[in-house]
Amino acid sequence: MFSTLAVPLDGSPLAERALPYAIRMAQASQGRLILVRAALAPPPRTLDGASWEQDQAEAVEEAETYLKQIADSLAGQVASVEIAAPYGRASAQILEAAARFNAEGIVMATHGRTGLPHLLYGSVTEAVLADTSIPVFVVYARPGEPASPTFSPKSARVLVTQDGSEFDAAAVDAAIKLVGPEGEIILVSVIPPPERVTRDEVGHVIAYLDQQEESDKLQAREYLTTIAVQMRTRGATSQVKTDVRIGDPASGIAMAAIDESADVIVMATHGRTGIGRAVFGSVAGTVLRSAPTPVVLVHPHAGATATAAAAAPEEVLEAGVAPPLF
To answer: Which side of the chain, N or C, has fewer Cβ within a 10 Å radius?
Structure first.
């Protein structure tokens, strides 16, 4: 369980949609919440900037007042609530606060903007993900739509994506920490369908599409079974099951979440950067926008490769359940 969670807020109702999830997670571990709101004053109103220092102080005071109100409203619901209203740009201050309070996870809502506004203004969530090694629990807040129901981590059904890459272990680690003894972990792999029949050097058919598909699914099941065994060896108390699908990764993951009645999806991002691989343009971003549940995103971090190598046989990894997609 997560004992300390940072919860970024910006004063908007959409950002506050992350709070119910953070509260339930803190309750499950008797942990604490760190409410964070970055304060940032507008540009100086005069050429000499004489009022800017006062503007900065007022911005910090406003942020602190807002956070204290939220903290007071949580009295009696969680063991401990602290606030942080640092001055500066949101993503940098969220990361700094998470590090200063030794947070084990970040719980935040995102609007998930796409198109020109997204490219112009960027995403705080993406910026946080790019520079943190702790899991980020992301609630996709859709304006005009009601918030999704919360869940109890102690009995949650957690869907964990696995694609045969070196980053799989990071998602498994986060899931084990998230779910309680009465919960269930579903390991899911979505593999691409075969594109053509396999032939030998003289053109004879070796394997038809259905045969390749069945072989690929068998390899994926063996891989997930190995991961499940390793989880039990490590003392994971939750039930563990596997789910293998053929098709588009994002659609397959979203459908698996629906079919398995998952409360949350845990998946690793592959740490690629740049506009072409921004989180909201990747499989992870598509799942976040289309799945009916929140998503815990885990950025690759030091040690993940070693853990993954220990968790799965070399021959299975070489076979490649699916190319890295997230």
So the answer is: N
Which CATH class for the 153-277+295-319 domain? alpha beta
pLDDT tens, position by position, 253-312: 999 999 999 999 999 886 554 433 445 557 888 888 888 899 999 986 533 443 443 444
Regarding the domain with residue range 4-140, which homologous superfamily does it belong to in the CATH classification?
Answer: HUPs (3.40.50.620)
Buried b (16+ CB within 10 A) or exposed e, 254-282: bbbbeebebbbbbbbbbeeeeeeebbbeb
Helix-helix angle 168-178:209-233, to 10 degrees: 50
CA 230, CA 224: separation in Å to the nearest integer? 10
DSSP state of 164: S
pLDDT in tens, 33-82: 999 999 988 776 665 666 778 889 999 999 999 999 999 999 999 999 99
Bridge partner residues of 185 (DSSP): 158, 240
Domain ranges of the chain: 4-140, 153-277+295-319
In sequence order, the β-bridge partners of residue 191 are 246
Q: Do domains 4-140 and 153-277+295-319 have the same CATH topology?
A: yes
Q: Please name the residues in contact with 94: beta carbons below 8 A apart, sequence gap of 6 or more.
A: 6, 8, 36, 38, 106, 108, 124, 128
